C-alpha cells in the first residue's frame, strides 16, 4: 500500500512506518537534499501532525525549510511552501510571534515571485 492510502484510512502508525522507509531510502539513494527526499520528509510531517506529535513535526519542517533554502533558494516555491507549513505549525502550537514573522516573509516572497493573484499567494495571505 501507499502511505496516502494508510493516511486516508486513519492508519497513522502504518503510514508513518512506510513514510519513514521511503524517506530513508530517498536519503540513501538520492541524497538528503534532493527535492524528492524533501517531499518525502514533508509527507511524513502530515502523518506526524495527525498523531499530535508537534515537536517531531516542527523539527522535520525546520529541516525541510532550511535544506530547501540551501538547495533550492529562499525564493523557490517549494521553499515558500515549507515556510508556510512551518508557520501553520507554529501558529497551531501557540508560537504566534514566530508564525507571524515567517508568514510575513512568505507572503512578501510569494507576491514578489508569483504575483498577488497567484493561488499560492492568495492562500498564504489567508492564513
UniProtKB/TrEMBL annotation:
It comes from the Eukaryota. Gene3D superfamilies: Tetratricopeptide repeat domain. This is Kinesin light chain.
